[in-house]
Amino acid sequence: MPKESLREKLNHDNELDLSLNNLETVPVKDLAALPKATHLDLSNNLLTALPDSFCSLIHLVKLDLSKNALTELPRLFGQLENLQHLDLLGNQLKTLPRSFCQLKKLKWLDLKDNPLEEGLKKNAGNCLNEIECKKCATRILMYMTDLDGQLELQSQAKKKKQEEAEAKQKDREEREKQKKRQEKKAEKERRRREHEARRAQELLAQNGDTSDEEITAAREKLKYNAGLKRRDKGQGSRNCFLIVLFSFLALFGALLVAIDFHCISSAKDEMCASYWQPTRAAVISSWELSKISALNFYANYIEKFFSPKT
């Protein structure tokens, strides 16, 4: 429908009457270009459904969709947030979209002559006059709000149940992986033992004897050789540690000798006079005292013990 003809139908009260036009589709694009058309009459047409884009006509305040063949409303119908008056008389509606509870400004609603499900039918009432239609709007909004809350709880419960199922599945998969890793490890150990057994048999076959006793002895020998290898490896680690320790002590001793030589050559060095010379004197004094104590101990006990008795 041309936009010019729509403008011609728009009256001074911002009412756009498109009733009785045998419309099968709604010219949403043209209607969106007329934001002043806050009252829209689409009654007595051949509409069976509204496009999703219809929900973009948020300027609508009054909407008449009566006496069409609508079987459902768009899922986002609740986006028509400014809607106050809605006439759905004489359609084929059984349910309303979940978003219907978002029509907080809705004051008037007519749902007569629709094959509504029991809950909607009970709350819609007869709507035979203005007061009943206003009550219908209030009751239906309350009903749809409660229904939305119940559906949300069901959705959360379903989501939680799904998450628990996924967690259990993940746990089962992890246990299965662990089991496979253990089986793989056990299989590897079995192949290793079989390989050792074959090597033992080959060694005995080379000597021309394959008795059970010698096979057992060969296996024990293999284990003993493996133990020797591990022990040699540990001994090598200890030897490396001793070499490193000895090198450190030798380096430390060389450092002390170098410091002593420097301080003897440079008697006026303040660091030597303040730290090294007193330390050196204390060490020499301790060494002399230790030597005297050792000589006295030797004279009083060792030499006396081993000297011939007269």
Write the layout of secondary structure elements.
Layout: H1 3-9, E1 15-17, H2 28-32, E2 39-41, E3 62-64, E4 85-87, E5 108-110, H3 118-124, H4 130-206, H5 212-265, H6 270-306
Parallel strand pairs: 1-2, 2-3, 3-4, 4-5
Describe this structure in words.
InterPro entries: Leu-rich_rpt, Leu-rich_rpt_typical-subtyp, LRR_dom_sf, LRR_domain-containing. This is Leucine-rich repeat-containing protein 59. The chain crosses the membrane at residues 239-259. It holds the Pfam family LRR_8. The chain is mainly alpha-helical and 310 residues long. Helix content is 60%, strand content 5%. The chain is built from six helices and five strands. It has helices at 3-9, 28-32, 118-124, 130-206, 212-265, 270-306, and strands at residues 15-17, 39-41, 62-64, 85-87, 108-110. The chain has a five-stranded parallel sheet with strand order 1-2-3-4-5. The model has no long low-confidence stretch (mean pLDDT 84).
State the secondary-structure class.
mainly alpha
How much of the sequence lies in strands comes to under 5%
Count all strands and give the number.
5
Q: Looking across the biggest beta sheet, what order are the strands in? A: 1-2-3-4-5
Radius of gyration: 51 Å
Distance between the termini: 147 Å
Our count of helices gives: 6
| Low-pLDDT sequence parts | none
The coarse silhouette is elongated
**Main sheet overview:** 5 strands, parallel
* Helix fraction bin: 55-70%
* pLDDT averaged over residues: 84
Return the string of H and E elements.
HEHEEEEHHHH
Protein name: Leucine-rich repeat-containing protein 59
Organism: Biomphalaria pfeifferi (Bloodfluke planorb)
Region (Disordered): 158-212
InterPro entries: Leu-rich_rpt (IPR001611), Leu-rich_rpt_typical-subtyp (IPR003591), LRR_dom_sf (IPR032675), LRR_domain-containing (IPR050216)
